[in-house]
Amino acid sequence: MMLKPLSLQSPSRCASRISTSLLSRVFCSRNHPPLIDNKVETVFGIVTSSTSSKSMKESLKSSGVFLSNDLIDKVLKRARFSHGNPLQALEFFNYCGNRKGFYHTPFALDTMLYILGRSRKFDDIWDVLIDIKRKDRSLISSRTMQVVLARIAKVCSVRQTVESFRKFKKLAPIFDTTCFNALLRTLCQEKSMSHARNVYHSLKREFRPNMQTFNILLSGWKSSEEAEGFFQEMREMGVKPDVFSYNSLIDVYCKSREVENAYKIIDKMRDEDILPDVITYTSIIGGLGLIGQPDKARGILKEMKEYGCYPDVAAYNAAIRNYCIAKRLGDAYTLMDEMVSKGLSPNATTYNLFFRVFYWSNDLRSSWDLYQRMMHAGCLPCTQSCMFFIRLCRRQEKVEMALQLWNDMVDRGFGSYVLVSDVLFDFLCDLGKVVEAEKCFLQMVEKRHKPSNVSFRRIKVLMELAKNHEALENLSRKMAIFGHSMKVCESDDILVETPDLDSCPNFA
């Protein structure tokens, strides 16, 4: 079956993908002028090195740095990614907020709440929200709600998450379907579709569902049968599906290997004058790969162009993934070269598809060549790519390559220092390279990232055996700066601080 023509004005992939994490958009990377960066580092250094609220205030005043909204936003963002002491960030946030005539930005509020939520400081979260309600209630938005609920949902039950949602009725200036949608989106991302569905049915009489409500719920189905039933309920409530709704159903069919049903939905879209877009085609490409038809999937890329819709990076990545799964790396490389010839730059996901194959085939040489190509192109590896590469280096005992990766991470600021350093320190300690391990340890601390206690203990043993007591005392002092211990895990390349405290909000 031939696919139907696409609209020349296809909606943006990022705009239409409701399932994309909201937090990743809220805290997206920005480019800063060098002068501002220096001020950010100065203020951040004061906040993290101060031993008391009084000393922090005095140091900030004597620094001569003007604490503008823009600067405060960037310092809090820096605090978020440093995984430091959340109470220090809160002291800074409160100090700035208590200045006469000053009001925080929504970004500052949401970032502060994220930092507190990550450390499960739920009582502090509600204190901040109550204070903000008193000063400027308009800052509390549905986005704020989702930031808070996402952290609660990670460690608490669905019931407790819903109870937290209801507490916002007294805090938010508007408590409507948009807020209801924020709750559903949180449950889809942090819990499961079945939980989101149950909450939807229990609260849908209080909040009138709209198009966004159904699109949030449709985007997470794994069973085509359940998705079809929900799609029918959408129609029965008088909500007309849009291109995103249909794309969600097509995605479910493709992931379930029901590609023919996906084609039928495309016909139905055309009957309703809803033209498929690039996301529609990307799902089809992925579905064809799952049923072992990578060449037919590649043909979709050409077919799209005939109808005036040009593949984006995600569409090419889907086709490349198919060839990588089939271990046809020559065809995969050809597609990547084609991307470049069309003016599209391969991203970290593109390269990671190859790193994964090279890791499982134990091909360090190809991984190294690809890494060099990637860095030359100016594309920084994601954490998963770094982990594939560092583990290969350890497996084949290539210290120079491992240290090159580490130095690039330090110089250019990509990847997770914590996760990569655990493998690197273990590798260096196995080979007795205590000098190299000490240097990497100090580099990491200078970047204000805390090495794991396990890594520190391994280096400590080597230094004790070498009777290098002076260096050991220096490292011990560096570790003491970080205070309480942390456990670090990774989800979609985002590091999450998980303190030992296992607490939930007080719902009494």
Automatic annotation (TrEMBL):
Belongs to the PPR family. P subfamily. Pfam families: PPR, PPR_2. The lineage of its organism: Eukaryota, Viridiplantae, Streptophyta, Embryophyta, Tracheophyta. Keywords: Repeat. GO terms for molecular function: mRNA binding. This is PPR domain-containing protein/PPR_2 domain-containing protein. GO terms for cellular component: mitochondrion. It comes from Cephalotus follicularis. NCBIfam families: PPR. GO terms for biological process: mitochondrion organization; RNA processing. PPR repeats lie at residues 242-276, 277-311, 312-346, 347-381. It comes from the Eukaryota. InterPro entries: Mito_RNA_Proc_CCM1, PPR_rpt, TPR-like_helical_dom_sf.
